[in-house]
Specification:
Layout: H1 2-15, E1 25-29, H2 32-42, E2 46-50, H3 65-68, E3 76-79, H4 88-95, E4 100-102, E5 110-112, E6 132-134, H5 141-158, H6 163-188, E7 197-200, H7 206-212, E8 215-218, H8 230-242, E9 247-249, H9 257-266, E10 269-270, H10 282-297
Parallel strand pairs: 1-2, 1-3, 3-4, 7-8, 7-9, 9-10
Antiparallel strand pairs: 5-6
Helix pairs in contact: 1-4, 2-5, 5-6, 6-10, 8-9
Length: about 300
């Protein structure tokens, strides 16, 4: 039902485009952090429309006519890609695949898979070890450097008159990411090597861990909404002790009951919530998460 509403809404959107006279470049964006990037690269030359505004869980987000009507007349749509958006093929089929840019497509991917050196050992029966592409590339500062160039190039194709502006803005953004990367790496190194396992609700922070030489322990695997059995909780508690995990980090909008149960069994700290999928500022997200992680584990 939700998808049929999406299709009808998109049809109405396309039918109305012919009568619109767009002023400059208008871009619809399906990820809050890409909204920040689009604004920084586009500057005053681009009208950026946030189509996922107010969404806290991008894995469950499904845009409907109400959201899509905000981007009426858009020449371009930005999505994260790497399989994050289950509605992507429907959007492409109606607005045209050439109007949809998967920003993450050309960014190197991490894969989920049994035996990965990135993952700390987990119980095998809870969805941690199946293969697949990790879509959470936005937790890599280097990925944002690449994304700035990708978006600037696409903006320039759609709006050649402002090519120099987009290139200059992207260069400035990459410079800011260089400084941010140095800060993140410096902060993460403050944590003793023996404590560099990041235990979170679901497998969202692999790119952050890879960039900084950490291990990732996703407590609830791919899906933070899973309801684990008491047997599994006991097994996970054993893993936490074996890996000498220093703290458990829940996520915003995450049910804390699983973490509370594990903390009771293991006696370790539950840290403040991290931001996994949705934040208004790229730099702000990294500073928020890294400050919490380091402040908890570097002690």
């Amino acid at each position: 039902m939700r998808m049929s509403l999406l299709i009808r809404g998109l049809v109405a959107l396309i039918c109305g485009m012919g009568s619109l006279q767009a002023a400059g470049l208008k871009v619809g964006v399906f990820h809050p952090l890409l909204v920040d990037l689009a604004k920084q690269v586009g500057g005053d030359a681009v009208e950026v429309v946030d189509l996922a505004q107010g969404t806290s869980d991008l894995h469950r987000f499904q845009p409907g006519p109400q959201e899509l009507s905000k981007a009426r007349g858009a020449q371009l749509y930005l999505v994260a890609g790497k399989g994050l958006e289950p509605y992507l093929s429907k959007v492409q089929s109606i607005v045209g695949a050439d109007r949809v840019l998967e920003v993450g497509r050309k960014i190197p991917s991490l894969s989920y898979g049994k035996g990965s050196q990135l993952h700390a050992c987990c119980p095998d029966d809870h969805g941690h070890d199946h293969g697949g592409i990790d879509p959470h590339w936005w937790h890599s500062v280097d990925a944002w450097r690449r994304a700035a160039s990708i978006v600037a190039d696409e903006f320039s194709k759609r709006d050649p008159a402002n090519k120099a502006l987009y290139a200059a803005n992207a260069k400035k953004f990459r410079s800011e990411m260089d400084a941010l990367d140095n800060w993140v790496k410096g902060q993460m190194k403050r944590v003793p090597t023996s404590r560099r396992t990041l235990a979170t609700a679901h497998a969202a922070f692999g790119y952050l861990c890879k960039d900084n030489g950490w291990k990732m322990l996703p407590i609830q695997g791919m899906n933070r909404e899973q309801s684990p059995s008491s047997k599994w909780l006991g097994e996970m508690a054993a893993v936490i002790r074996d890996q000498k995990v220093g703290a458990l980090f829940p996520e915003e909008s995450h049910n804390p009951k699983v973490f509370q149960s594990l903390a009771k069994q293991t006696g370790i700290t539950v840290g403040k919530p991290l931001v996994a999928d949705s934040y208004s500022s790229i730099a702000g997200m990294f500073k928020h998460n890294v400050t919490i992680i380091v402040g908890t584990l570097a002690q």
